[in-house]
Write a structure and sequence with these properties.
This protein has helices at 39-51, 92-99, 112-123, 180-191, 202-210, 214-237, 253-266, 283-300, and strands spanning 2-6, 10-17, 22-23, 29-32, 60-65, 69-70, 75-76, 106-111, 131-137, 141-147, 150-151, 168-169, 172-173, 242-246, 273-276. It is α/β, with parallel strands linked by helices. It folds into two domains: 2-115 and 281-300, ATPase, nucleotide binding domain (Nucleotidyltransferase, domain 5, 2-Layer Sandwich), CATH 3.30.420; 127-276, ATPase, nucleotide binding domain (Nucleotidyltransferase, domain 5, 2-Layer Sandwich), CATH 3.30.420. The protein is globular.
């Protein structure tokens, strides 16, 4: 099954083997993508990556893409988020189908954090857990609350729409403490960089922290203590037995873990097992394939099937 994982800086295309549920290594293609480009340029770049996959595969595609996005209609809602602004109001699904001609009859979109979580549920650290919270740490904080392998977006047991980036901590929106932008700015303030605009990126700040730089170490500790404090009440409210951490920043798990655990303790602790992802790169591809497969199966079940996988309420009932 063909899948796409669309991020702010790259797009990955792959074929997932339905027999194993894993991407075929020879098919995985990662190509650069500019999220600040014009709409046609963004869609062209995504389509070019997709067209590099071998022809002759199924016409149902799974597509993981960050929000805000209308996943049922395939229309972008990227307003005021600093990426893919040109896709706001654009029918991304129609644009991609036109560019892919007859190779993509059905595109099944889902949130990139949900795709990661579903992938970890089927082949990673979330496997075997009825309720699990998955967090992706990159440009910002993505999240997915899974019940029996399906995302829960509604109800009192999860944050609004199931998104932890809507939470506040220390009186500020969470991503003012935990995000690529926030960590760079906090390090710059601690290190006395004029204008708080350090040229260093997060992975470079992480290297300095490991080397004993106090400003870098403190910036990491501040960010991930805040994350622990913000999510701990929701992990318990959801009755999750596991928390799985992925995303590009998770490569610095040695720095994240102690700070995250300290934040969880400050908020009262949790009994959930907290661990890094086992399939950090492949999980979104695996999750997108499962989402598309479920939609394809639903469509084949008859007229009542809309072709969209069922979502869950907070009680885990398919609706």
């Amino acid at each position: 099954m063909p899948v796409l994982d669309i991020g702010g800086t790259h797009v990955t295309a792959a074929l997932v083997d339905p027999a194993t549920g894993r991407p075929l290594p020879s098919s995985v293609l990662r190509r650069p993508l500019r999220s600040d480009a014009a709409a046609d340029s963004v869609l062209d770049a995504i389509a070019l990556a997709a067209l590099e996959l071998p022809a002759g595969h199924r016409s149902h595609w799974g597509v993981a893409i960050p929000g805000p996005f209308d996943y049922d209609t395939g229309v972008g809602r990227f307003t005021g988020v600093g990426k893919f602004e040109a896709l706001s109001g654009v029918d991304v699904g129609a644009g991609l189908r036109r560019r892919l001609a007859h190779r993509a009859e059905h595109l099944r979109f889902l949130n990139d954090a949900d795709a990661f979580a579903i992938g970890e549920y089927h082949a990673g650290a979330a496997a075997g857990h009825e309720r699990v919270v998955c967090l992706t740490l990159g440009t910002g904080v993505g999240s997915s609350f899974l019940r029996d392998g399906r995302p829960v977006h509604d109800g009192t047991r999860v944050p609004p729409d199931g998104h932890v980036h809507r939470l506040t901590v220390r009186g500020l929106p969470l991503e003012e403490s935990v995000s690529r932008r926030a960590i760079r700015a906090h390090y710059s303030r601690l290190d006395g960089v004029p204008g708080n605009r350090s040229p260093l990126d997060v992975h470079q700040i992480a290297a300095l922290a490991r080397a004993g730089n106090p400003a870098a170490a403190k910036a990491f500790r501040y960010a991930f203590e805040a994350l622990g404090q913000a999510v701990a009440p929701w992990v318990d409210r959801f009755e999750a037995s596991a928390v799985v951490i992925g995303g590009s920043m998770a490569q610095s798990w040695d720095l994240i873990r102690p700070a995250l655990f300290a934040g969880l303790v400050l908020a009262g602790g949790t009994t959930a097992r907290v661990s890094p992802a086992r399939q950090p790169a492949q999980a979104p591809l695996i999750g997108a394939a499962h989402w598309a497969q479920d939609a394809s199966n639903a469509a084949r079940r008859g007229p009542a099937g809309s072709g969209t996988p069922p979502r869950l309420t907070q009680e885990g009932e398919a609706v």
